[in-house]
């Protein structure tokens, strides 16, 4: 007769094989992870749906230019007018640029005689750097700047992904060291998080190689997403593991019990984020569409690492992992959150209403939201590319910094198209360009700024005129890309926000086996997003001095704030749901808050700190994403999940758990009456009834 093995015995035998398997996987996949930057796509058309006219123009231009090449503009200026010596210098610079980047266009002098500029193409950032060195002028008073799309892309490089990764590692290490107050323990979740990053980056490399659009913004978010989520999962698991060590003699049995009690919660938490990420597949924007699978594989990697590798490492280390503290000291309730819960319980309805009013007031800041898709405003400071673009606009007209591209069938259709374009308001000039794959090509310079409402209206007007005259004509270029990006973002907002909320609602309802509580949690999540985003908008505009936010960025922030914020909903509500079944709604809510409030606070600080690391990048978009999510997570952690939600649950009582635990139901009475007896029968069914009573309403702890 075979004696069944206990879960603890199985874990003891698997710990070393699991660690060895992870080490082998990391060795094999690290080259792919390190090579992720080579397959990212940061071209402007990468942020558009394939059906957008500007995307079709970019695709048609690809045989003419390499996939990563872009325009570079070299501008020379001298106050009072260019001299004959300056013109000789410009001619020599044009020859040098032609040797570096291929044929350069003619040098055009401005009407005021103070500037001259020519255009070329640059395949990558190194070419831009070489051009800048080559065109330096020794002439006194002659100013030379390199601008254009290629130069903007080069100046947008910011800090490297490696720097961002190291910053996230340092932040997480410091926070975990403070939380655990152990010389050793913080290393294990950090190693698990770093391992998850490598697996996630290798998977993202595979997705990009398969044709998915993966941008640098997506890869930057992936790093902090995996680090933050993996740290959260580790905090919850270790918290429960230390609690179980008080009730089991061996670390293996304690870990088996901790995994049994936390795996459903961790899986539900991961499922909400994965579901929200995969909902992005409905986006029209290629980069947002690509972010969905990238974020999903990142969360899967974090969950796998912290539920397989982390337990194995902790079991190998044993109780020594908690040195100089003892593992049996864990699991105590938080005095702070016990006191908060006790005060909340005195007037829960008042606390809930006050929280809603406070969040609603913060959401008023959304009225100051301004969309700005000007790529020049995405660069912090004033790099050469921005200064050069401003000089071009000053000397050649507002639309000269980003001419539109007109592609039309040749012959009579081209003549009709150019006539229609010239008669369109806000068009300053139409110049012929090299043909593109059977199309006649023209450069269209606007007389208005190309990246504000007037420029977008000009794009819409041009397309409307051409649809009537030459239906096959296409209008592209940077301004058209920005216009199409805004249109795609508007549609994606209307589709994705309700879809993401629905996915989260379904997952939370399945976990809690209830209807009312999930509706409450999702509504609180949406309100928390509105409040944190409203405050962030005010900070960006009045503190940091940013001109606005890119059209797609609110969706990025919404998805991550809502999906990650619901993690704490799940951590808290799942424990409250568990304790309510044996203690009743009031005591179960207070006890659940007291034992999870501390770990939720620590998890929120870790996640907020990792996303705040994005602010070190030189791009406004990174700073806006990082600050908004960091503030939103802290708001969730310190107010919504630990004050407003418990207050609402206390106000609703058992009705919150309808229909699975309705007031007076047979199941509810049975669970309460038999909770102690049932738990004593199985050491793996979670912690036994505490030897000390749960936190009393007076908040004095246990």
- How would you state the average pLDDT, rounded? 84
Number of domains: 4
CATH fold category name of the largest domain: Multidrug efflux transporter AcrB transmembrane fold
The profile of the biggest β sheet is: 4 strands, antiparallel
Question: How do you describe this structure in short?
Answer:
By secondary structure, the chain is of the alpha+beta class. It is 63% helix and 7% strand.
Give the topology, please:
Layout: H1 7-34, H2 53-61, E1 70-77, H3 84-101, E2 108-109, E3 115-122, H4 125-134, E4 143-147, H5 149-155, H6 161-180, H7 187-209, H8 216-244, H9 251-279, H10 286-317, H11 335-346, H12 348-363, H13 384-396, E5 404-408, H14 412-422, E6 427-436, E7 439-446, H15 453-469, E8 474-476, H16 478-512, H17 516-542, H18 553-583, H19 585-612, H20 620-652, H21 666-681
Antiparallel strand pairs: 1-3, 1-4, 2-3, 5-7, 5-8, 6-7
Helix pairs in contact: 1-7, 1-9, 1-10, 3-4, 4-5, 6-8, 6-19, 7-8, 7-10, 8-9, 8-10, 8-19, 9-10, 9-16, 9-18, 11-19, 11-20, 12-17, 12-20, 14-15, 15-16, 16-17, 16-18, 17-18, 17-20, 18-19, 18-20, 19-20
């Amino acid at each position: 007769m075979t004696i069944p093995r206990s879960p603890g015995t199985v874990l003891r035998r698997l710990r070393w094989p699991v660690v060895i398997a992870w080490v082998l996987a990391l060795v094999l996949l690290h080259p792919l992870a390190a090579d992720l930057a080579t397959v990212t796509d940061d071209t402007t058309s990468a942020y558009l749906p394939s059906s957008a006219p500007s995307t079709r123009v970019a695709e048609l231009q690809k045989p003419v230019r390499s996939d990563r090449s872009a325009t570079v503009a070299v501008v020379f200026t001298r106050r009072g007018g260019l001299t004959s010596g300056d013109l000789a210098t410009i001619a020599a610079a044009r020859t040098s640029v032609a040797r570096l980047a291929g044929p350069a266009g003619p040098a055009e002098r401005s009407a005021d005689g103070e500037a001259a500029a020519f255009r070329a193409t640059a395949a990558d950032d190194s070419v831009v750097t070489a051009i800048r060195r080559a065109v330096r002028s020794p002439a006194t008073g002659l100013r030379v700047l390199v601008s254009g799309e290629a130069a903007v892309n080069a100046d947008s490089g910011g800090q490297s992904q490696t720097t961002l990764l190291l910053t996230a590692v340092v932040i997480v290490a410091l926070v975990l060291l403070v939380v655990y107050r152990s010389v050793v323990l913080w290393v294990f979740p950090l190693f698990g998080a770093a391992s998850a990053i490598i697996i996630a980056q290798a998977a993202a490399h595979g997705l990009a190689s398969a044709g998915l659009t993966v941008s640098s913004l997506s890869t930057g978010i992936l790093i902090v997403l995996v680090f933050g989520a993996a740290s959260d999962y580790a905090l919850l698991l270790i918290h429960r593991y230390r609690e179980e060590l008080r009730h089991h003699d061996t670390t293996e049995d304690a870990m088996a019990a901790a995994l049994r009690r936390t795996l459903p919660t961790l899986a539900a938490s991961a499922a909400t984020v994965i579901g929200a990420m995969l909902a992005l597949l409905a986006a029209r924007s290629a980069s947002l569409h690509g972010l969905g699978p990238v974020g999903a594989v990142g969360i899967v990697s974090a969950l796998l690492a912290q539920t397989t590798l982390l337990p194995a490492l902790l079991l190998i280390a044993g109780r020594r992992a908690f040195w100089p503290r003892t593992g049996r000291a864990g699991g105590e309730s938080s005095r702070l959150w016990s006191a908060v819960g006790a005060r909340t319980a005195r007037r829960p309805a008042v606390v809930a209403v006050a929280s809603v009013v406070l969040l609603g007031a913060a959401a008023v800041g959304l009225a100051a939201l301004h969309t700005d898709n000007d790529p020049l405003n995405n660069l912090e400071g004033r790099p050469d590319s921005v200064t050069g673009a401003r000089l071009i606009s000053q000397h050649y007209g507002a639309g000269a910094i980003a001419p539109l591209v007109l592609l039309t069938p040749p012959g009579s259709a081209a003549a009709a198209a150019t006539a229609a374009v010239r008669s369109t308001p806000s068009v300053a000039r139409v110049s012929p360009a090299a043909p593109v794959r059977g199309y006649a090509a023209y450069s269209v310079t606007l007389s208005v700024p190309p990246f504000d409402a007037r420029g977008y209206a000009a794009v819409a007007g041009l397309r409307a005129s051409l649809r009537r005259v030459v239906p096959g004509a296409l209008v592209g270029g940077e301004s058209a890309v920005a216009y199409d990006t805004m249109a795609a973002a508007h549609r994606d907002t209307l589709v994705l926000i309700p879809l993401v909320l629905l996915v989260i609602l379904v997952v939370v309802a399945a976990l809690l086996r209830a209807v009312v509580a999930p509706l409450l949690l999702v509504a609180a999540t949406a309100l928390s997003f509105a409040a944190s985003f409203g405050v962030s908008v005010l900070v960006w505009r009045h503190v940091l001095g940013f001109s606005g936010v890119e059209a797609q960025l609110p969706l990025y922030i919404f998805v991550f704030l809502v999906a990650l914020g619901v993690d704490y909903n799940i951590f808290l509500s799942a424990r409250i749901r568990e304790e309510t079944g044996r203690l009743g709604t009031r005591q179960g809510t207070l006890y659940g808050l007291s034992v999870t409030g501390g770990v939720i606070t620590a998890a929120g600080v870790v996640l907020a700190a990792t996303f705040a690391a994005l602010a070190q990048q030189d791009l406004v978009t990174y700073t806006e994403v990082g600050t908004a999510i960091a503030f939103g997570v802290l708001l969730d952690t310190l107010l919504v999940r630990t004050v407003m939600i418990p207050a609402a649950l206390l106000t609703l009582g058992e009705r919150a758990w309808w229909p699975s635990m309705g007031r007076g139901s047979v199941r509810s009475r049975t669970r309460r009456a038999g909770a102690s007896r049932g738990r004593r029968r199985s050491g793996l069914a979670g912690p036994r009834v505490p030897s000390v009573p749960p936190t009393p309403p007076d908040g004095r702890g246990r």
